[in-house]
């Protein structure tokens, strides 16, 4: 089954997305997500100029061979741009293979290991009453697990707080990328954050009791000893996980955090390959793998990482914010449904314009997701709707400390 064409589509319904559409000589199409928030055109150029010409005439069924060719054949390996491009090809080829087989993709991955996929939502607020209201809203929507993000007294803008104004206005569904010519500057104070967060979780636990699974994202902003302190201070509130507590490029740093807290740790949304996880998984320094299918080489690569993690009782927690398109989300759901060591799936609902561009079959019912049973991924791209929303420049913010030093955002 030879590849006849491959097209890169960049569109901006609600936010920017990069989609790869591969078509075989038999007319079967497959979609892959190559979105890289704030650097979308870097991936689209990599695909258009360096990857698409290599695909024409290749056998669409040879997924593993194509993956190895794009990874090893480039010589310059890894990195988010390269791995997002490879992921788009990989997912599109899996979509084609499953359509050719007449099956939903998860069937080709070994079939379902569960009836549905537990998801968590994102509650946030500028103060504790607003956070409690946000939790109630998410419970009413059906979520059974909820991430808690909060504004911090003395800090003007904090990641993950939807109602908090920014230079570009109120964030779209927690999406911090702002449509502007230059990135916005935000501030940060770790000591203020470390003092405030435990009081927020105390209030949430007092209001909603001990059974509701609660999560929190530190967004790489702490040093290892600060992360250890936060993990220990949150132990009374029994978190499902503490995410990205410190920049994990320094994998050894997680040893220090592990020594001081039993709070479960989730790491990896900025990781791109198994090599980023090698020490963390082998030494059991984390509890959940947080990579996105879109940024980590696709379904083929993510399944290998999660199979490796399963040897150490480490589970999945695949990245799923609104900067992962519905194509990338569907790919994650098929993998979630099939693997044995599933943990939880991040799920942020896309806006109406995005749902018009990407026609989806996956469902969210009573806190659980299912990819649907249409052949392939179950997502189709409305090219006419996509063309109505051209690319718009957008950047993620950056942080400075009070003395002007650039800090991790």
Automatic annotation (TrEMBL):
It comes from the Bacteria. It holds the Pfam family MR_MLE_N. Residues 128-264 form the Mandelate racemase/muconate lactonizing enzyme C-terminal domain. PROSITE patterns: MR_MLE_1. SUPFAM superfamilies: Enolase C-terminal domain-like, Enolase N-terminal domain-like. InterPro entries: D-mannonate_dehydratase-like (IPR034589), DgoD-like (IPR034593), Enolase-like_C_sf (IPR036849), Enolase-like_N (IPR029017), Enolase_C-like (IPR029065), Mandel_Rmase/mucon_lact_enz_CS (IPR018110), Mandelate_racemase_C (IPR013342), Mandelate_racemase_N_dom (IPR013341). This is D-galactonate dehydratase family protein. It comes from Arthrobacter vasquezii.
């Amino acid at each position: 089954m030879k590849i006849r064409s491959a097209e890169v589509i960049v569109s901006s319904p609600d936010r920017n997305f990069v989609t790869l559409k591969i078509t075989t000589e038999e007319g079967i199409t497959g979609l892959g997500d190559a979105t890289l928030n704030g650097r979308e055109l870097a991936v689209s150029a990599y695909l258009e100029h360096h990857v698409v010409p290599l695909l024409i005439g290749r056998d669409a069924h040879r997924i593993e061979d194509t993956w190895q060719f794009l990874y090893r054949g480039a010589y310059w390996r890894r990195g988010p741009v390269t791995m997002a491009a490879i992921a788009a090809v990989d997912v599109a080829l899996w979509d084609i293979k499953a359509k050719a087989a007449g099956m939903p993709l998860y069937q080709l991955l070994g079939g379902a290991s569960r009836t549905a996929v537990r998801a968590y939502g994102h509650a946030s607020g500028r103060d504790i009453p607003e956070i409690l209201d946000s939790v109630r809203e998410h419970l009413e929507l059906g979520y059974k697990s909820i991430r808690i993000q909060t504004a911090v007294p003395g800090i003007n803008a904090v990641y993950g707080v939807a109602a908090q104004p920014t230079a570009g206005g109120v964030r779209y569904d927690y999406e911090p990328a702002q449509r502007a010519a230059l990135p916005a500057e935000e501030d940060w104070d770790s000591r203020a954050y470390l003092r405030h967060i435990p009081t927020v979780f105390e209030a949430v636990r007092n209001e909603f009791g001990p059974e509701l699974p609660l999560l929190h994202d530190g967004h790489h902003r702490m040093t290892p000893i600060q992360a250890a302190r936060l993990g220990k201070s949150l132990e009374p509130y029994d978190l499902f996980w503490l995410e990205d507590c410190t920049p994990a490029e320094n994998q050894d740093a997680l040893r220090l955090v592990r020594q001081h807290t039993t709070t479960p740790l989730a790491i990896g949304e900025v990781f791109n390959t198994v090599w980023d996880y090698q020490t963390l998984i082998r030494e059991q320094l984390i509890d959940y793998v947080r990579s996105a299918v879109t940024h980590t080489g696709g379904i083929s690569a993510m399944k290998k990482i999660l199979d490796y993690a399963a040897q150490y009782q480490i589970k999945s927690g695949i990245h799923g914010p609104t900067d992962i398109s519905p194509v990338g989300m569907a790919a994650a759901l098929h993998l979630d449904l099939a693997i044995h060591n599933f943990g939880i799936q991040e799920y942020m609902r896309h806006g109406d314009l995005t749902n018009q561009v990407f026609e989806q079959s996956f469902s969210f019912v009573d806190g659980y997701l299912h990819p649907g049973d249409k052949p392939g991924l179950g997502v189709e791209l409305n090219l006419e709707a996509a063309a109505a929303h051209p690319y718009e420049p957008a950047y993620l913010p950056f942080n400075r400390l009070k003395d002007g030093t650039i800090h991790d955002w």
